[in-house]
């Protein structure tokens, strides 16, 4: 999909709640009738100001200007009906109403421009994220895969959470990670990690060797980052937590290297097992501080098992009382008849827990091993 095709609807599909347009016109009609029939010392004309002001809150500048013009015309008719249009009181009311209508029409124009710009940024961000992190394949060998990405802010689709799955001659290699920070810096680092992951998977080195090369790539990328505003240590503290797995086709197992990432969860026969490695590695980019080699640990992963990988945006999500999301407890209550059903229930439950607003982006990947054909 080309960028022009992505951006074209933004100029055409801005929200226009047409039913609300009747409200300011009804207000103008009501105030006009009441003002014409009011006692001589009662003037309701100033209430007409509310009509263009209300319109500017939901409509564009053309509609706002139209409502303002109708309000000025209505005030003029009131002046003619009650005394004369040259009456000083009505003259001042008409002039004030005209000026306020001009102001709110200008504000409606500014608001519409802002909405259009935010809409363009949102579409571009989503397009960039789809290019950098395309959807995972639904099937990879004997694996059924599903994924979800929940952005913390609707306007900020560019995040640092990442996932990818790549096919090899012996099975499937998967990564789920979380880059420190947000925005373009985090997205650039995530793109670097994903690019390296795909290239290394194509070369098919062993899992510890591949993770070691990912570590070297993140460290080199971090060394080249200049400190950003408000984050003077950005260039020296960039890191990525990650879980990297090899899932062979022929063996009912998986091999896992965990680099400071939350442990995967395994659903097996109604039980939830946490895959905690004995020798966890530091996050990618901080390996030089630890000076230790990466070690892969093997876990059973048989037919019918479902593996859940996630980022810390899931378990660090809080409810109104400040309680963290109890993932291990909640996952047992979700449907386990496939990865898609599991993630559908889990994401809905997570958003309910957080009252619809996550504190951080959250990525989830569910993988089920199917019987070999």
Number of helices: 11
Strand content: 15-25%
Strands, total number: 11
- What is the 3D shape? elongated
Rg over CA atoms: 30 Å
User: Could you spell the SSE succession in H and E letters?
Assistant: HHHHHEEEEHHEEEEHEEHHHE
* Biggest β-sheet description: 6 strands, antiparallel
The side-by-side strand order for the widest beta sheet comes to 1-2-11-10-7-8
- Mean pLDDT, nearest integer? 83
Q: Provide the helix percentage.
A: 40-55%
Q: Pairing-aware structural class of the strands and helices?
A: alpha+beta
Low-confidence stretches: 1-15, 227-236
How does this model look, in words?
There is one protein chain. Helices cover 43% and strands 18% of the residues. The chain has helices at residues 3-7, 22-36, 50-56, 61-82, 88-132, 183-203, 207-223, 287-290, 312-315, 327-331, 339-353; strands at 139-140, 143-150, 161-167, 171-179, 240-248, 253-259, 265-268, 271-274, 297-300, 306-310, 362-369. The strands form two sheets. A six-stranded antiparallel beta sheet has the order 1-2-11-10-7-8. It is elongated and about 95 Å long. The two termini are 35 Å apart.
